[in-house]
Amino acid sequence: MSESFPRLHARTRRFTLGVPRGFTIAPDGGRIIFQRAKDGTDPVNCLWELDVETGAERLIVDPRSLDAADEDLPAEERARRERSREVAGGVVAYSTDGAVTVAAFTLSGTLYVTDLGTGATRELSTPGPVLDPRVSPDGTHVAYVTGGALRVRELASDRDEALASPESPTVTYGLAEFVAAEELERFRGHWWAPSGRELLAARVDEEPVQLWHIADPANPDRPAAEQRYPSAGTPNAVVELFVLGLDGSRVAVPYEHEYVVTAAWDAHGLSIVTLSRDQRTMRVLDADPATGATTVVREDTDPAWVDITPGVPAHLTDGRPVWVTNADGGRRLLIGGEPVTPPSLYVRSVASVDGDTVLFRASGGDPSEIHLWTWADGSITPLTSGSGVYNGQLAAGVTVVTAQTLDGEGVVTTVRRPGGDTRPVRSLAARPGLELRVSLLRTGERELSTAVLLPSWHEPGSRRLPVLMDPYGGPHAQRVLAANGTFLTSQWFAEQGFAVVVADGRGTPGRSPAFERTVRHDLATPVLEDQVDALRGAAERHPGDLDLDRVAIRGWSFGGFLAALAVLRRPDVFHAAIAGAPVTDWRLYDTAYTERYLGDPAEDPARYERSSLLADAGKLDRPLLLIHGLADDNVVAAHTLRLSSALLAAGRPHSVLPLSGVTHMTPQEVVAENLLLLQVDFLKKALT
According to the model, what pLDDT value does residue 669 have? Predict the structure, then answer.
């Protein structure tokens, strides 16, 4: 008997295990290093090499051979993986030198270094559990963090010394602070110079950040875990930058803004990107490593907020900067300060810069599709075609392309050589065993990206099905993409007898900066209105299939907030809701995300009131299931508990499912499987 979808979905970590990822192309284009588990239910990532000429694969590192398959992660590494949404084990991250001959990684906090030519791997003793090891560009040293200190190991002599040590328990060197990793897409805190003789390092002092406590009620004998959490309107960590030399030198690099967005150090110098606390001003600084002096080379401003784009800053061979900014109503690629893409092409990220060629991701007209493009010799060229979501990497003229489409299952990875021929990179991911039946539509007056999923066994017009809205619906993320894997869980819900509708409303990316900014100062009204519009538009496009007298909504995180919001404010439309890890009071959520959209709560508390669920508790007259992991350190359980208390005080029946020991990701197999089954049971009872 084959495994059920909920069980397989849980065991495969949403069908991500066995998918090749983390590609590093050697400078000569002849080899590619990557990570992949040995099959679709194996949670242990190994390190592999692909010979680009022959397509042959070679296993370089198998953690099992190092007796390190059973992980015992230090708390700092668990937190790092939570921020990066890492669900696998084994070699989950690695770094190499510039020549791609040496790799460094950790297993259960232990540092390992591998000779990529021979596969010889050795364990290096360290003073404590290791975080974020980075090999120097010349391959002679490995920098890493342990106990809050940034240390460097010389590989030839095994000499190990601290370049910077914490002056107090609240200080760390070389790591990203909470909001940088959670909201600013910066997961690192140290960067090697091209020479390999010095590093730029972040010094983070969390002393100003308020102290919260994450308790484990299921184990009252254990003390609550302390966490520094910067909720909206409260102080952030103090972040300083220093250039630390292997010779013991230390040079401060001052800057004015609240946030360090990223840093890049290449042959053209050291660049630092900073962002003001209100996120309306972003600066690119050129820094002199010898003196720490900085020069502002670019400043972008926006009356709402400035967007962060992955992959920039970068430079072409001649030193011209590569940047992305909002201009003329679009998000455009800039070369040397001049836009080179039309406003109609929404640039998502810069994937790679290879000499004088830029590989970037962009959507043109349809936000559900993301294609690869190149800029070279003054012109842009599409690299991918056909409906889908594509990503890639380019070096030495070799391009790794990953593709997800609605027609094909999983992620397909190919390597394109300069001559035009291709090599596949095998995916060992499990097959979901679902027949996807999805229609991508544009609905309502705003032509919202909407997906409608029907059961594979349903005959159109034969009967009206209860409807399940399945959104995320908020800023910074999309659910409606032309990719099979996006809709697997939604299709499974459809197979249980629902018509499932997924809609990306105002605030979601991919269309235009203006579309995203319509949620400024109100995270509730526009997003809820658009879910209603998409529902009605889907019903118009599928007459006879959707029963608008039986509509439920489910979601997680922002989607959980939106689900609870729907039954509280629009019970005429939504008849039941499942709210997983919902943000119920935005004052309890972090500074960088919340203030970007709602501003400082001290400036205008009414913005927070408009977007809060607590004042609406007395309106509930529909079934509502609240689900929350008690170990969640992102959207803390206090969100659900405060809403539940407000509902109880108002005499409004509801259900609460607390998940002991579960974080925001719910990676545990049994929890993930049974959560799906329990949700279906709740929905069927609520809509009968």
Answer: 80
Mean pLDDT, rounded, for 544-554: 98
- Residues contacting 688, CB < 8 A, separation 6+: none
SS3 category, 161: strand
**Of 463, 580, 555, which Cα lies nearest the Cα of 502?**
555
Residues 505 and 525: beta-carbon distance below 8 Å: no
How far is the C-alpha of 177 from the C-alpha of 548, rounded, in Å? 46
Q: Which two tokens stand for residue 48?
A: 């592999």
Q: What is the pLDDT of residues 629-663, one digit of tens each?
A: 999 999 999 999 999 999 999 999 999 999 998 99
Q: How far is CA 83 from CA 76, 436, 633, 634, in A?
A: 11, 31, 10, 9
Structural contact between residues 438 and 453, judged by C-beta atoms closer than 8 angstroms: yes
Q: What are phi and psi of 583, to 5 degrees?
A: -80, 115
CB of 352 closer than 8 Å to CB of 392? yes
- Cβ atoms of 486 and 367 within 8 Å: the answer is no
The pair of structure tokens assigned to 262 is 């990223």
141-173: pLDDT as tens digits: 999 999 999 999 999 999 999 999 999 999 999
Q: Which residues contact 169 (CB under 8 A, 6 or more apart)?
A: 148
CA distances to 90, 578, 632, 661 from 86, rounded to whole Å, are 11, 25, 15, 17
Which residues, other chains included, contact 648 with Cβ-Cβ below 8 Å and sequence gap of 6+?
Answer: none
Copy the structure tokens of residue 433: 């065993």
Q: Taking a C-beta distance cutoff of 8 angstroms, is the pair 513, 307 a contact?
A: yes
Check: CB of residue 395 under 8 Å from CB of residue 352.
yes
Contact in structure between 612 and 550 (CB atoms under 8 Å): no
Amino acid letter at 68? A
CA atoms within 13 A on the CB side of 230: 26
Give the whole-angstrom CA distance, residue 454 versus residue 397.
43
Contacts of 258 (CB under 8 A, 6+ apart): 236, 274, 275, 276, 277
Which pair of tokens denotes residue 355? 């000499």
Q: Residue 120: exposed, middle, or buried by beta-carbon count in 10 A (0-12, 13-18, 19+)?
A: exposed
Say if residue 295 is exposed, middle or buried (CB neighbours under 10 Å; 0-12, 13-18, 19+).
exposed
Q: In what helix (H) or strand (E) does residue 492 lie, and over which residues does it extend?
A: helix 488-495
What is the spatial distance between Cα 238 and Cα 205, in angstroms, rounded to a whole number? Answer: 5
If phi > 0 it is left, if psi is from -120 to 50 it is alpha, else beta; for residue 445 that is alpha
Query: Phi and psi for 128 in degrees, rounded to 5?
Result: -170, -175
* Cα–Cα dist 220/226, whole Å: 15
3-state helix, strand, coil in the chain (%, to 5): 20, 35, 45
- pLDDT above 90 as % of the chain: 93
Q: Is the predicted pLDDT of residue 614 greater than 70, yes or no? A: yes
Residue of 656, 666, 655 whose CA lies nearest to 632: 666
pLDDT at residue 29 tops 70: yes
Q: 681 vs 434, 547, 556, CA distance in Å?
A: 20, 19, 18
Residue 1 has pLDDT above 60, yes or no: no
569 contacts: CB under 8 Å, gap ≥ 6: 524, 528, 616, 619
Q: What secondary structure letter does DSSP report for 196?
A: S
Measured CA to CA, the distance from residue 434 to residue 491 in angstroms comes to 7
Q: 424: which strand partners?
A: 414
> Facing residues of 379 across strands?
376
The Cα 93–Cα 191 span in angstroms is 16
498 phi/psi in degrees, rounded to 5: -115, 150
Residue 41's contacts (CB-CB under 8 Å, 6 or more residues apart) are: 8, 11, 12, 17, 18, 430
- Whether the CB-CB separation of 133 and 140 falls below 8 Å is answered with no
